[in-house]
């Protein structure tokens, strides 16, 4: 009797885990379907960055995204821009801009991956539900299929709107959390937002 009961419990647990995995995939498919139909997005956000062994620092800003692989992040006095080929990181405080080729090694974080395209090299698992800034959200844990800079990620998906409301990224060096609000889709973000001309008098470090 005990063996039979254990087998039933194990079977139920396995089925529950399988159902949660299927639910996570279905939720993500809805998000993908929504974002695949848009050309650009804009949102304000708060960001909390905690370096390994250090204190957490918070800032707020605006993020612009355009299909494909184009984004601009303005936060904490810094500007990060990419047009999908070249990336610019500008610090007015340091009077410095770093230019490099846009890199996508599969596990690096970019807003487009989590807002436009769910990365196929991550497993997904529905963790539960949580209210984020007044919005009821699904909580989905993402685990990389192979080793890379991103160790794990968690996304909070609006149950009603199929928007991603919050993103948490854990790397070997830091934990970075974005909370999104005032999301605007297809607002006609200009392509000029995704290129950058260094101001006069700043140091240019070109790593290309």
What does this structure look like?
With 208 residues, the protein is α+β, with helices and mostly antiparallel strands. It has one domain: outer membrane lipoprotein receptor (LolB), chain A (Clam), CATH 2.50.20. Helices cover 19% and strands 48% of the residues. The protein contains 2 helices and 12 strands; from the N terminus they run H-E-E-E-E-E-E-H-E-E-E-E-E-E. A 12-stranded mixed β-sheet has the order 7-8-9-10-11-1-2-3-4-5-6-12. A hairpin with a 2-residue loop joins strand 3 and strand 4. The longest helix is centred in the first third of the chain and has 35 residues. It is globular and about 50 Å long. It starts with a helix and ends with a strand. The N terminus is likely disordered.
Radius of gyration: 20 Å
Mean pLDDT: 80
- In terms of quaternary structure, the protein is single chain
Q: Give the amount of beta strand, in percent.
A: over 45%
- Cα-to-Cα separation, first versus last residue: 68 Å
CATH architecture name: Clam
Going across the biggest sheet, name each strand in turn: 7-8-9-10-11-1-2-3-4-5-6-12
* Model regions low in confidence, pLDDT < 50 over at least 5 residues: 1-21
Number of domains: 1
Largest sheet: 12 strands, mixed
CATH topology: outer membrane lipoprotein receptor (LolB), chain A
Output the number of helix runs: 2
SS class: alpha+beta
Kindly state the percentage of residues in helix: 10-25%
CATH-assigned homologous superfamily: Lipoprotein localisation LolA/LolB/LppX
Which class in CATH terms?
Mainly Beta
What pattern of helices and strands is seen along the backbone?
HEEEEEEHEEEEEE
Compute the number of strand runs.
Answer: 12
């Amino acid at each position: 009797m005990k063996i039979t009961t254990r087998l039933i419990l194990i079977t139920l647990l396995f089925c529950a885990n399988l159902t949660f995995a299927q639910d996570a995939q279905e939720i993500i498919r809805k998000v993908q379907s929504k974002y695949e139909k848009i050309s650009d997005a804009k949102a304000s956000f708060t960001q909390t960055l905690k370096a390994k062994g250090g204190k957490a620092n918070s800032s707020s800003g605006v993020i612009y995204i355009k299909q494909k692989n184009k984004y601009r992040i303005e936060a904490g006095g810094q500007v990060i821009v990419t047009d999908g080929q070249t990336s610019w990181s500008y610090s007015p405080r340091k009077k410095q801009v770093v230019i490099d080729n846009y890199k996508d090694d599969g596990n690096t974080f970019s807003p487009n991956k989590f807002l436009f395209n769910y990365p196929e090299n991550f497993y997904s698992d529905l963790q539960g539900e949580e209210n984020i800034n007044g919005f009821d959200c699904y909580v989905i844990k993402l685990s990389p299929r192979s080793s890379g800079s991103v160790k794990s990620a968690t996304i909070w998906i609006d149950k009603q709107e199929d928007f991603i409301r919050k993103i948490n990224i854990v790397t070997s060096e830091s934990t970075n959390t974005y909370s999104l609000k005032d999301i605007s889709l297809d607002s006609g973000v200009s392509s000029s937002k995704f290129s950058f001309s260094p101001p006069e008098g700043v140091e240019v470090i070109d790593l290309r």
